[in-house]
Amino acid sequence: MSQDSQFHLNAFLMGVGHHEAAWRHPRTEAHRVLDVAHFQELGRIAERGKLDSVFFADGLAVGPRIKHNTQAIFEPVTLLSAIAVATEHVGLIATASTSYSDPYNLARKFTSLDHISGGRAGWNIVTSAGADEAANFGVDGIPAHSGRYERAEEFVDVTLALWDSWEDGAVVLDPETGVFADPGKVHTIDHDGPRFRVKGPLNSPRSAQGRPLLVQAGSSESGKEFAARYAEAVFTAQRTLEQGQEFYRDLEARVVKHGRNAGDLKVLPGIVPFIADTEEEAKALEQSFTDLISPEYSLRQLSTMLGVDLTKHSLDAPLPPLPPLDEIQGNKSRYQLVKDLAADGSLTVRQLIGLLGGGRGHRTFAGTPEQVADELQTWFEQGAADGFNIMPPYLPGGLDDFVDRVVPILQQRGLFRTEYTATTLRGHYGLTDVGNRFAGAVDEASA
Amino acid sequence: MSQDSQFHLNAFLMGVGHHEAAWRHPRTEAHRVLDVAHFQELGRIAERGKLDSVFFADGLAVGPRIKHNTQAIFEPVTLLSAIAVATEHVGLIATASTSYSDPYNLARKFTSLDHISGGRAGWNIVTSAGADEAANFGVDGIPAHSGRYERAEEFVDVTLALWDSWEDGAVVLDPETGVFADPGKVHTIDHDGPRFRVKGPLNSPRSAQGRPLLVQAGSSESGKEFAARYAEAVFTAQRTLEQGQEFYRDLEARVVKHGRNAGDLKVLPGIVPFIADTEEEAKALEQSFTDLISPEYSLRQLSTMLGVDLTKHSLDAPLPPLPPLDEIQGNKSRYQLVKDLAADGSLTVRQLIGLLGGGRGHRTFAGTPEQVADELQTWFEQGAADGFNIMPPYLPGGLDDFVDRVVPILQQRGLFRTEYTATTLRGHYGLTDVGNRFAGAVDEASA
């Protein structure tokens, strides 16, 4: 949220593409979902386009989608480590859950990626809404929405403290005196809260960008409050300019309410672009993907998303009435989105599936490179975005097309960088250096 | 434990060397402890020597050693991911704790490394004895030795089940039919034990080597029983041939008692080799490292190792009497080793520190390339080893010397491979393919 003259671009990467049928389409090679070199290539393509970052989502279960789901292969941070050493500039963002990990392990893992990449790591904070995920960690049913966010807040507080536990300059590394670290600049955090007790310090020094970037994607009331308090970038699904503007204004007001500057948080709506020489060809390209959607897979996915079993429901009837939002313990943002789409009862389940198939609720857009650029420019200039979460429907081709055909237009219009001017992810997003709560403090206990 | 005609070699890597003063020595560049390219280079050197694997240890705290400790930088699995994509053959083993992580997360992390590396991942199982580690995870004091191993057993049982949850061939990846996975070959594990409840399946398919190799290094009674039951390779600190033979025989008997074949577990004693053209030069090289040891650091480290505060103790007096082993809740193997060394009261603390400085209790050996090769051959042929855990005192030079000067001698003698003949870590160690408990099973629940 800022008056920047240029916007930011993140490439949200998933298997061989975001479209659920991408791996069945002739424009992809399905076996590459298992190939780390494919993902390294995607990182290099993003870097060729001077993109701010790449991002991998994650979930901690295969759920009921196993028959048709190509996504469950790599853990994102290990994957990004392999991409880090194949790239030099692009930021590297991974999802990790606050519900099913420990702050110490998570802080360490992301700091390690930050060291490996020279300060390019980012953490997309999720609270893991799924009952299938809960069952892999000894939790029955879906953990309550409010409890997940309470835990997430304490989790992030501890993680931030651990990331501050080594000050800049704590590493002395002086072979003459034999001093590796200045104990006066390495601090215990002594956190003692309702869910976590963590002494610290972290077992890894501060990284080149101070600490990993905090990213968030929840759009529920709790999610937006959480983002306004902690996040530095927000991924969001907004289907119309008006909805995007409303979300942007709402989040901006919350950020300011929390005592932060509006520019401290960047809002990045998602877009699934189908790009071709003409609008007609682009729409035909999109249709060629839609034609490959498996109704069986989609109904399972929609059932999981809604928490309502639709697998016996007719594809050509409207969606049955859905329970009210406040009864939902799962992913509220996605639930509300489907509820809105189905509100007037005019869409059949089959039509709804087609709409959702491209980007699981994110906006799809089929057009020429100029039309895509126009659309992004409009959202940026009309106060709905600080940048965009680019979700190529197929990979690597869809990212190639965006980088080679859309980015140059954005650069010509002065809307996007022509060279990297920063070395860290934080720098790419134009975020000022983070402070350190311990800077200058004296902490004998950790000496 | 086998009658193999050739032995196995693992390079245990740590910062710029195992000797605690390595980073102060002119043969190293201290700043490289922070440089991922340094570690990628080490992986490539090990591969040049056709070594079976490289290994990184880990701990979940900085403890009291922060002033002089150069080790706390990278989390091993993220680091090995970066090394995986810079190498093609060498195995990649990392320590991870059963006390402070979840089976689902750990199984996923190592499977991800296994996919990234094409089946070269190994897990060194530790139970985390330190009070400083406990304090970072909400646990007061040192967790009881027995409780740690009980948790470790259930943890490994769950992890093995998760690694079996996808059968070989479960991934169909057929674009024509739209089938990614065969649900009949992907299984829930439905584990319900005293410490963990985990439904499964894992959210990642089976890897090229079936599952990561299991490695273990504890030499306590519980540690040896654990190793005999689960481990496929054991790292161990043995200071004399006789002790090595006794350990080997003991472990072999335990392996057989657990119904396994003796050859299912490889015993790899550690050795810290100082290599030079003459024995005299090698000993002078070792002394040049010993001269750089910081007594302040060493006393803190020894105090931590023993759980006895020696920081006010005279360097030139013998060690004070130590409490009996059964009162120790921490690392029993290392404690017993120091107790043995100090048993007759003839060593001063300063001398003990010198002995321990090279490899923290592992055997150091200074000699010519031929002498090092002779020593390894003797241990192998005399029934004390299936291979060796090579711990270069300084890096990369100490590994270069071993690979370029000792390995060719071993190859000439027919004791070590001249080319890789396998593609996986499991293959390098000559371990037969693991089975899968679910192979052929019908599991409708996960369909």
UniProtKB/TrEMBL annotation, chains A, B:
- Record's signal peptide: none
Keyword tags: Flavoprotein, FMN, Monooxygenase, Oxidoreductase
Named from the GO MF annotations, one term is: monooxygenase activity
Q: Source species, please?
A: Rhodococcus jostii (strain RHA1)
Pfam families attached to this UniProt entry? Bac_luciferase
Record: residues binding FMN: 58, 95, 145, 149, 219-220
Q: Give residue ranges for domain Luciferase-like.
A: 30-384
The protein here is known as Nitrilotriacetate monooxygenase component A
Per the record, the similarity remark reads: Belongs to the NtaA/SnaA/DszA monooxygenase family.
InterPro entries recorded:
Diverse_substr_monoxygenases, Luciferase-like_dom, Luciferase-like_sf, NTA_MOA
